[in-house]
From TrEMBL:
SUPFAM superfamilies: Rhodanese/Cell cycle control phosphatase. Residues 29-127 form the Rhodanese domain. GO terms for molecular function: thiosulfate-cyanide sulfurtransferase activity. This is Sulfurtransferase. It comes from the Bacteria.
Length: 137
């Protein structure tokens, strides 16, 4: 069985993607970075949406980001475009950010703490079916 795009990342040589705070991510998006949400539809429905993000299926990175792909995201201006990746945690966003970096995207960062940290920072999110956990004292 062939490797998935994220498994292929393990063999690619790329610099460690930058890990940024939710506030830094929001500032970059405000300045024009592309915000991508790589969480599953079920997770977004349950815990909430990332306002303004382009939803990306992690298993379709070559189709969505490939230079000559007919399915390439229309929001991509160039490989120099800054991209901020958010998942539920860095374990989900790091492989996507690594894949992007290994495939020519030079300005990729991912958000420390993922969507929960983004929401806890008071940044724009849509409601999910599950109420956010109360902060512990």
């Amino acid at each position: 069985m062939p490797n998935t795009p994220l498994e292929d990342t393990a063999t690619a040589v790329a610099a460690e993607p930058e890990l940024i705070t939710p506030g830094e991510g929001a500032a970059r998006v405000e300045a024009g970075a592309l915000l991508i949400d790589v969480r599953s539809q079920a997770t977004r429905d349950r815990v909430g949406a990332l306002t303004g993000a382009v939803v990306v299926d992690r298993e379709r990175l070559p189709e969505l980001f490939g230079k000559d792909s007919p399915e390439r995201l229309i929001q991509l201006a160039s490989t120099d475009q800054e991209i901020v990746v958010v998942c539920g945690s860095v374990d989900g966003s790091r492989p996507v950010a690594e894949w992007l970096g290994a495939n020519g995207f030079g300005q990729v960062a991912h958000v420390e703490g993922g969507f929960p940290a983004w929401r806890e920072a008071g940044l724009p999110t849509g409601a999910g079916t599950e109420a956010p956990a109360e902060p512990s004292a």
